[in-house]
């Protein structure tokens, strides 16, 4: 088995079937693992016929993805959000790059939706990632099993786990930034407001950089607030 796609879920009954249906053509060379965080809806029931494994743990994206990785058989781990879709020929593109000197990487991203700001935000995300070597989970981080272990896996913190993993992986190998675009849902941007969400995300990153508690930042992120009420 060359690839394991690990999908963290929590009450994603409305999105899980669409996500997994898009991955079915890949299953001849790839296993699909749902890393659930204790969903109280029927996420697991809907996912069961479309996934190879469903593993459960306590809630927390880093914790869930680590649990999925522990159950994975693939030599290349792909961490995919439930509302993000891979581009055509994603797996050959990953395999070709990781067969060279790279150990990990991510895709460029485009956001669903028609608002012009979403295109600008995606462009900024891609450029920032190229400059810093840091990827977000929405850009679909992929990594060799060996490098993932050497980096110490995801830190099991409530938010910013992707930043910490990338920092550790950069010490092992620079990232490969694939120009092929994953398509990620703009549902959060549209729910809380595009400009508000943009400012919120930058605020959370800066506060994390200066030592803010990840649990506090996670609470603010979930509620779409700048400050705890």
UniProtKB/TrEMBL annotation:
Record's subcellular location: Cell membrane
UniProt xrefs under Gene3D superfamilies: Spore Coat Polysaccharide Biosynthesis Protein SpsA, Chain A
Record GO cellular component, one term: plasma membrane
Alphabetical list of InterPro entries matching this protein: Glyco_trans_2-like, Nucleotide-diphossugar_trans, Trfase_2_rSAM/seldom_assoc
This protein's UniProt keywords: Cell membrane, Glycosyltransferase, Membrane, Transferase
Database matches in SUPFAM superfamilies: Nucleotide-diphospho-sugar transferases (SSF53448)
Keyword Cell membrane found: yes
Pfam families referenced in this protein's UniProt entry, alphabetically: Glycos_transf_2 (PF00535)
Protein name, entry field: Glycosyltransferase 2-like domain-containing protein
Species assigned in the record: Candidatus Methylobacter favarea
């Amino acid at each position: 088995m060359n690839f394991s796609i690990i999908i963290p879920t929590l009450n994603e009954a409305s999105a899980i079937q669409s996500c997994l249906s898009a991955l079915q053509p890949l299953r001849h060379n790839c296993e699909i693992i749902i890393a659930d965080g204790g969903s109280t809806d029927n996420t697991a029931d809907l996912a069961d016929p479309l996934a190879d494994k469903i593993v459960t743990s306590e809630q927390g994206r880093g914790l869930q993805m680590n649990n999925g990785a522990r159950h994975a058989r693939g030599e290349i781990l792909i961490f995919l959000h439930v509302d993000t879709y891979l581009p055509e020929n994603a797996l050959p593109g990953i395999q070709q790059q990781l067969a060279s000197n790279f150990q990990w990487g991510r895709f460029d991203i485009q956001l669903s939706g028609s608002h012009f700001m979403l295109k600008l935000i995606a462009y900024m995300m891609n450029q920032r990632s190229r400059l810093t070597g840091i990827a977000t989970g929405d850009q679909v981080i992929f990594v060799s099993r060996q490098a993932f272990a050497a980096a110490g896996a995801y830190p099991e913190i409530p938010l910013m786990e992707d930043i910490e993993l990338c920092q550790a992986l950069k010490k092992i190998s620079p990232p490969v930034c694939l120009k092929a675009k994953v398509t990620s849902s703009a549902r959060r941007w549209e729910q809380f407001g595009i400009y508000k969400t943009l400012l919120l995300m930058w605020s959370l990153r800066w506060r994390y950089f200066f030592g803010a508690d990840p649990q506090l930042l996670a609470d603010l992120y979930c509620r779409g607030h700048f400050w705890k009420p």
